[in-house]
């Protein structure tokens, strides 16, 4: 299954969302979801972020790929992007703006650890690169 997620940057912070579902209730994640048939990853990302967070995203850049195994193999593509809007909660109970070094202050999926580690490593350059775009 192909899945996309977004490390959304605003005001030099990254947005993480607390899921409200039976499997992942109370766990934070990078928002996103499944890529539908006949949909590009970018189209899926924009749709999922609009559906889940009620915001438009811009300056979308591929960040990394990862694989996860839950009920089936998940092929995850993570993107960084920006927004000027504040998320509206629908499938999440909380949305927090934080920095990569503070993400582990919140319960987070182990499978997202490689994304967080790469964000921590690249954060000084990434936040400067994205700052001029929002």
UniProtKB/TrEMBL annotation:
The UniProt entry's GO biological process terms, in alphabetical order, are: DNA repair; DNA replication
What this protein needs as a cofactor is:
Mg(2+)
Which reactions are catalysed by this chain?
Answer: 8-oxo-dGTP + H2O = 8-oxo-dGMP + diphosphate + H(+)
Q: Write down the top EC class of this protein.
A: hydrolase
Q: Does the keyword DNA damage apply?
A: yes
Q: Which domain of life is it from?
A: Bacteria
Name the Gene3D superfamilies on file.
Answer: Nucleoside Triphosphate Pyrophosphohydrolase
What InterPro entries does the record point to?
A: MutT-like (IPR047127), Nudix_hydrolase (IPR020476), NUDIX_hydrolase-like_dom_sf (IPR015797), NUDIX_hydrolase_CS (IPR020084), NUDIX_hydrolase_dom (IPR000086)
Query: Where in this chain does the record put each Nudix hydrolase domain?
Result: 1-121
Q: What is its EC number?
A: 3.6.1.55
Q: Does the keyword Acyltransferase apply?
A: no
Could you tell me the keywords of this UniProt record?
A: DNA damage, DNA repair, DNA replication, Hydrolase, Magnesium, Metal-binding, Mutator protein
This entry's Gene Ontology molecular function terms read: 8-oxo-7,8-dihydrodeoxyguanosine triphosphate pyrophosphatase activity; 8-oxo-7,8-dihydroguanosine triphosphate pyrophosphatase activity; 8-oxo-dGDP phosphatase activity; 8-oxo-GDP phosphatase activity; metal ion binding
Q: Which family does it belong to?
A: Belongs to the Nudix hydrolase family.
Q: What is this protein called?
A: 8-oxo-dGTP diphosphatase
| Organism, as annotated | Floccifex porci
């Amino acid at each position: 299954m192909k899945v996309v997620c977004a490390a959304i940057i605003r005001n030099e912070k990254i947005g993480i969302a607390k899921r409200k579902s039976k499997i992942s209730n109370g766990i934070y994640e990078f928002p996103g979801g499944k890529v539908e048939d006949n949909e590009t990853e970018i189209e899926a990302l924009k749709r999922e972020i609009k559906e889940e967070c009620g915001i438009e995203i811009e300056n979308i850049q591929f960040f990394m790929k990862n694989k996860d195994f839950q009920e089936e193999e998940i092929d995850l593509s993570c993107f960084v992007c920006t927004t000027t809007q504040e998320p509206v909660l629908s499938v999440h109970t909380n949305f927090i703006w934080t920095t990569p070094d503070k993400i582990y202050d919140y319960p987070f999926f182990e499978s997202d650890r490689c994304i967080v580690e790469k964000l921590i490593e690249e954060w000084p350059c990434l936040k400067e690169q994205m700052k001029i775009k929002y």
